[in-house]
Structures
1.
Amino acid sequence: MNPEFFDRFAEALPSSGGLLLCTHRHPDPDGLGAVVGLSYLLEKKFGLQSELVLEGRIRRAENVAMRQLLEITALPKGGVDPADYNGVLVVDSQPGFSHTHPPGGLPILAVIDHHEGPRCEEGKEPPDYPFHWVNADYGATSTMVHVLMQHYDVEPDVRTATALFCGVRYDTNNLLRGATEFDERSFMELEGLADRRIIGAIDQPPLSRRYFQQMQEAMSACQDYGTLLLTLLGEVQSPESVAEVADWFLRLEGQQWSLAGGACDGRYQISLRCDMPDADAYPALRYIIGKDGSCGGHGRMAGGQISLADLSLEEIRERVCRRAVELFGLADVEPKFLVP
Ligand SMILES: [Mn+2]
């Protein structure tokens, strides 16, 4: 990336006043890491204060631990008076994605993201934000923020390095998934600066009884189609647990697609994962969700949702199952329960 492009980030910022940072609903470690990194850069280099506006609760145990241990504070969605701020910066997502709603009444100054999504797919020109950096060649948005910090000669402190490291680490599964040379460089550098005890505590957080119950429900629901593991649950404790279920079954020996779904907060959440080398999860999930909902994704992982306002849980499960089986050419396969 040429240095002049990064200079545009500085040009996009106001000279004073507060800023808001926004990421997707139920942020993951990469979204949180990118927020912490960007906030640090804004303060150290530009003397600007920024606050995270959080959409959706953080409930996955690892993400809760990361937020607590790194003391990541946030304003609730709806708790923001636009008059107090000069603009919004969006990370690890893009305005227009269905799970991302920047607070209204304020200009969007910057978008930094590594996801493919509806806008790329429609082949539209990206909207003209003052700083618009969307590049799927990065395995994590935290890497992009780290690269931006390096351009401005800002070295992260321990807390910031730990947050960014978690972002790179979880989004790339320790550099094993969709990582490029940029992610590798950031991973190595940040690891040396990060707090290992905090990383360990984020990695192995205490789990609730409900968590184990959820996993047992997932075990009994998982249907094995051979190349596809389908786990379409009813109510789940959090949207993140759907992603966790999809990730978990992907560890079954052999190579498969793992599709999981669960109802939470008025939406049916769906996660698709694959462990085949060149699989592209986003177009696959796009097909499976069809016109019923929306999705986004990156490399071998994708996530989306269908509103439960217009369709019943049963209708959604039936449609998702039918289209997944159709897409993967498994219409003639009689599924077995993974755990009979
Ligand atoms: Mn990400």
2.
Amino acid sequence: MDKCLSVPQGQFQLQRLPFLRNDTLQAWDAADEYLLNHLAEQAILKPDSRLLIVNDSFGALACGLSAYQPTVLSDSWLSHQATRINFQVNQLDLNELNLLDSLTLPATQFDCLLIKVPKTLALLEYQLHQLKPFLHADTQIIAAGMVKNLSANVWKLLEKIWGPTRSSLAVKKARLIFVRPDFSQVLPKNPYPSYFDYPEMGWRIANHANVFSRESLDIGTRFLLQHLPEQAGADIIDLGCGNGIVGMALAKRFPAAKISFVDESYMALASARLNVAQLSPEGVAADFIAANGLSDFAKQSSDCIVCNPPFHQQHSVGDHIAWQMFKQSFQVLRSGGELRVIGNRHLNYHLSLKKIFGNCHQLASNAKFVIFSCRKP
Ligand SMILES: C[S@@+](CC[C@H](N)C(=O)[O-])C[C@H]1O[C@@H](n2cnc3c(N)ncnc32)[C@H](O)[C@@H]1O
């Protein structure tokens, strides 16, 4: 698999995160190449252009355009970290890079804004609202994506919130959408964060735009909530916490424990923070960690880990992140500690769990999901 992106801006060695030996996927797509080629052919950027890049997957755009000292905005800790690593690998100056998480507002307006269309339309909608004040009448805006990911709703949102669009021809199944900012429209209200009720506990759950199962409680999560551990020890982790509802239920059940909420999405962590605040006016012992799973945890530092693993990363599907989370959990659990996992039946998580832990018990199942418990020997 080719790891070297060749574009008019140069040649760049690029890797994805999480790092996988024998990874068959590239760290960029044809839309990145199309965009970089187009920017060079049309000489769109000037040396003093203020450049914003949104939703760059693993830093291909930021590396290609490092000369313009880009601001790079993303909801993904993994994307930010991959961008830092790819800057270093290509001997680019990290001081030229300004990384912003998806809930932080930029400090300036931009002359050029490049946006990769994200998988979640709600995230796109949020970003169009969030960034409109940072456009001016002459801002050059280019949205890019693979044709299969560009539904009619992408155009509708761009036109409703930013302004009229014009499309390029498709090249290698990728397309560019050019947007002219229009400030005469009355902007609809930014609908995020949105909320749903969880009446069983009397909670109102806040969800920022990019959060898993943002509109209602996921049926798998509901099943997991019915089968949480009865005993857990002092240090508990909600791994891949999303809006934090699983960790909140654990905090309620084990008030003396400390709960660590871990996710790679900044919006997930911000939602979990908002939600945990409603548990008790005095606050609960909790921390909120943006990371690649448990990579920042010390070995043997936790008594119980509960996880509803992700089954896709951006536009690609796979169980590699789940597998990584299981291996990390084995390292981070103390002897006797428990990993509790929910998965779709067809994913066969018990095979990998048994391989890693040497044991794996099925605690519950229904037509769609299975819940497993593994103990660190
Ligand atoms: C299936 S969702 C579960 C969310 C929540 N626990 C629930 O049950 O509603 C999986 C979560 O894992 C997060 N995630 C994906 N890759 C991750 C990684 N490498 N490290 C940490 N979290 C990750 C996603 O952002 C997502 O919030």
